[in-house]
Amino acid sequence: MNKAMENDWQTILSLGAEGGSITLLGKEQHSGEWVFKKAVNEMNFDDLEDESFQPTKSTEKVCTLKSPISNRGNEATSWEKAIKLLDHYPWPMLNPREVHPAFRKRVWSALQKEVKGKYGDRINSYRLKKWSSLCLPEYSPKVDTLSKWLQNSTHTTILTGAGMSTESNIPDFRSKEGWWNNIDPRTVATTDALRDDYDLFHEFYSMRINGLKQCKPNIGHDILADWEQKGLIQAIATQNVDGFHTLAGSKNIYELHGSIHKFRCGNCAMSAEEEDFLSESNCKYCGGKLRPGVVLFGEMLPEESWRDSLTHIQKSDLVIVIGTSLEVYPASQLPKMTNGKTVYINAEVDTTHHNFDLMIEGKAGEILKLVDELV
Ligand code: APR
Asked: pLDDT by residue (tens digit) across 33-64?
C-alpha cells in the first residue's frame, strides 16, 4: 500500500485513463472516522462526454480527456460523500488500479450500485473482472463461471447437506467436528436404536432439537431464498432436517431425510407434538414410543420428496450441490441423474468428486455471497 502523501493520506481508490488518473485518498482520524479527498492527476475529467466511451475488449485506453477541471467539492467527511466525489465521472468504466483493503467491500457495493444503475451493460466483463480481482481478492474465475451459468440457466436445482448449516453453528456429520466422529450412528440413528435403546435415541435427538433452538439460518440460506424469489433457482432438495431453508423463506423445498420438527409414534405412526417427545410421553393412541420425523438409516426416503426432487433434477440444466459429502445413498446419486451442468461447492473437495463440471472449495455462505454479488 503506497502512502500517497507524507501526512499519511492513503490511496483508497485509484482509477486511470489515458493521460490521467483520479485518486480517492483517505486519512483515518484518531476517532477512527475517515476523511476523504479527491486528487486528479495531470489531465481533467470535468466534462468528459459519456459518448466518448466506446467500451472495447481491453478498455485500458479508451478515455480521452477534454478540458481542464475545477477544484469544486474536493473533500468529504463520510464514505457516502467520498464516493459521491466521483459522481461526475463515469468511474466504473475507468481502469481500476488500486483499492484499499479496508474499503474493498464498500467500493464493490458502490460499483454494484453503478452497474445496476446507469452503466448496466456498458461495463464489459473484462472491466468487471478487473474490479472483482481488486475488490474481492478471494474472487475466482470459478465464481464468475458459476454466476454466468446461474444467470443463463432456465431450470436450476440445489442439493444441500449438513455443510449448509455449519455456518449456523450446527455440526455436520462426517467432518472432524461432525456428530458421527463422536457418536456411532448405529447406536442413535437407526430403527434398531429406536427399538432397542430408546433412552440413548431419545437423548441424542433431544440434544439436537434443543441445540437447534439456539441457531438460525445463515447468509447462505438467505441467499438461496432470495435467488428462488428472483427466479434464479427453482427447487432445493435437502438432506437436512433442520428446516432452515424454509425458515429463511425458501418455498420449493424437498426434505429428503424428513424433518426434526415433526413427530409421530414409532408404532402406530400417529402424529405427536414436540413437547410430548421431549417429555418422553408415550403415544396417546397406542402407548408406543415417539420419534422425530427424520429418516433413520435403513428407512425409505419420503416418496413424494424423492420423486419431486428427481423430477426437478432431471429437468435442470444446472444442478448446484452444496455442503454434502455425498456419502449417503440414494441422495448421493441425484447429481448423476441430470443432463445439466453440475457444480459442487464444499469445504472439502477431493478427487472422488471429479465428475462435476465445476468444483469450488470453500464455505457455502462465503461462496454464495461472492456469486450473489455477481448475479
Ligand atoms: N460450507 C461448505 N461445505 C461445508 C461446510 C461449509 N460451511 N461445513 C462443512 N462442509 C462440508 C464438509 O466438508 C462435508 O464434506 O459439508 C460436508 C457435510 O457432509 P456430511 O457431514 O457427511 O453431511 P451430509 O452429506 O449432509 O450427510 C448426509 O447422512 O448422517 C446422515 O441423515 C444424515 O442427512 C445426513 C446424511
From this structure: 899 998 877 555 444 444 444 444 444 444 44
Place of cell 478515455: 63
Q: Where are the beta strands (DSSP E) in the chain?
A: 10-17, 20-28, 34-42, 75-76, 95-99, 156-160, 235-238, 253-255, 258-265, 271-272, 290-294, 318-322, 341-346, 358-361
Q: Is 257 a catalytic residue?
A: yes
Which amino acid would we find at residue 361?
A: E
Q: How far is CA 85 from CA 24, 91, 179, in A?
A: 8, 10, 53
User: What nine digits make up the cell of 357?
Assistant: 463440471
Cα–Cα distance between 186 and 256 in angstroms, integer?
A: 20
Ligand 1 nearest atom to the CA of residue 363, by list position: 1
Ligand 1 site residues (CB inside 6 A) read 161-163, 166-167, 172-175, 178, 239, 257, 323-325, 327-328, 346-348, 363-364
Which residue in 288, 254, 260 sits closest to 274, CA to CA? Answer: 260
Split at pLDDT 50, 70, 90, the class of 31 is confident
Rounded CA-CA distance 146/139 in Å is 12
Q: Which residues of 53-90 are buried (b: 16+ CB within 10 A; e: fewer)?
A: beeeeebeebbebeeebeeeeeebeebeebbebbebbb
More confident residue, 243 or 370: 243
Angstrom distance (rounded) from CA 208 to CA 194? 16
Q: Which residue among 165, 305, 346 is best mutated to probe the pocket of ligand 1, counting the most ligand atoms within 8 A of its Cβ? A: 346
Taking the CA atoms of residue 334, residue 338, residue 343 and residue 349 in that order, the dihedral angle to the nearest 10 degrees is 40
Determine the Cα angle at 213 with ends 209 and 214, to 5°: 125
Residue nearest to atom 17 of ligand 1 (CA): 324
Task: Name the least confident of 5-14, 205-214, 336-345, 355-364.
Answer: 5-14
CA nearest to 323, candidates 352, 361, 370: 361
Atom index in ligand 1 nearest the CA of residue 239 equals: 34
| Contact assessment for residue 346 and residue 368, using Cβ atoms and an 8 Å cutoff | no
Residue located via cell numbers 459522481: 87
